[in-house]
């Protein structure tokens, strides 16, 4: 039976390589244009148009073109239409609810992205344990890698928690004088000014974060992933 099996395989293999090409193969070689994957071409073109419009639609070279229109639609128009649709279908209350959800998700400190981050890390690690741990230890990988992966993921999680709970450098009426002397005003870019919300002098390089509603020294940006600010 073994000999027969090898013989059969050999015959199939030989036919595949040196036998008469099939009609499909001949068409491919001839390249008469019948096999162009139009669906794939259309999908690629639409994807490219959307990506370019989204990222570069506000460039001056696209002013007045349909690329700019697509950019407007993607960045604000579609949401406005959606709000109008909600209002028409379910009334002003429903529209205000959507606006409230948007405000909570985008303009207020909330743990949505933190939960998502933990879910992504935890879920991915779970999948790796389920699918790949059976190959450890293996010919190339020692059993050490099982424990090493736990250590690496734990370090990441610990750093995430530490970063999430550390103070970014909140400027208060108690510590403002410290920050002012640490970052003196140069009167060119940074002029002495009061924060209209916190009612304290805003030290040079500090900025009021409208999401956290506080002044932060050496402000860079508010990070939704850690509900904090990258700053001092
Ligand atoms: Zn913030
Ligand atoms: Zn402020």
Q: How would you explain this protein's 3D organization?
A:
Helix content is 58%, strand content 8%. By secondary structure, the protein is mostly helical. The chain contains 8 helices and 7 strands. Strand 2 (193-194) and strand 3 form a beta hairpin. It has 3 domains: 45-107, no CATH class; 112-165; 175-231, no CATH class. The termini are far apart. The strands form 3 sheets. Strands 1-5-4 form a 3-stranded antiparallel beta sheet, with no helix packed on it. Strands 2-3 form a two-stranded antiparallel ribbon. Residues 1-18 have low confidence and may be disordered. The protein is extended. The site of one zinc ion has 6 residues, from strand 5.
Could you tell me the strand content as a percent range? 5-15%
Structural class: mainly alpha
Mean of pLDDT: 85
Instruction: Tell me the distance between the termini.
Output: 76 Å
The residue fraction in helices comes out at 55-70%
The number of domains = 3
**Cα shape:** extended
Count of DSSP helices?
A: 8
Q: List how many beta strands DSSP finds.
A: 7
Low confidence ranges: 1-18
SSE pattern? HHHHHHHEHEEEEEE
| Small molecules in complex | zinc ion
Main pleated-sheet profile = 3 strands, antiparallel
Task: Name the strands of the widest sheet in spatial order.
Answer: 1-5-4
Cα-atom radius of gyration: 30 Å
């Amino acid at each position: 039976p073994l000999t027969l099996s090898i013989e059969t395989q050999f015959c199939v293999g030989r036919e595949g390589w040196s036998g008469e090409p099939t009609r499909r193969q001949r068409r491919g070689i001839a390249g008469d244009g019948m096999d162009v994957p139009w669906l794939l071409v259309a999908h690629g073109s639409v994807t490219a148009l959307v990506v370019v419009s989204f990222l570069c639609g506000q460039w001056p070279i696209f002013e007045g073109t349909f690329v700019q229109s697509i950019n407007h639609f993607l960045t604000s128009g579609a949401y406005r239409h959606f709000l109008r649709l909600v209002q028409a279908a379910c009334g002003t209350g429903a529209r205000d609810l959507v606006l409230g959800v948007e405000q909570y998700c985008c303009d207020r400190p909330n743990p949505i992205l933190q939960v998502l981050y933990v879910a992504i890390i935890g879920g991915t690690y779970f999948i790796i344990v389920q699918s790949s741990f059976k190959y450890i230890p293996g010919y190339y990988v020692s059993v050490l890698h099982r424990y090493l992966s736990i250590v690496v993921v734990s370090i990441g999680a610990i750093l995430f928690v530490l970063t999430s709970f550390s103070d970014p450098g909140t400027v208060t009426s108690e510590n403002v004088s410290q920050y002012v002397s640490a970052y003196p005003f140069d009167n060119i870019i940074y002029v002495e000014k009061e924060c209209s919300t916190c009612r304290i002098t805003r030290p040079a390089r500090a900025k009021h974060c409208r999401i956290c509603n506080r002044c932060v020294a050496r402000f860079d940006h508010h990070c939704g992933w850690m509900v904090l600010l990258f700053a001092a």
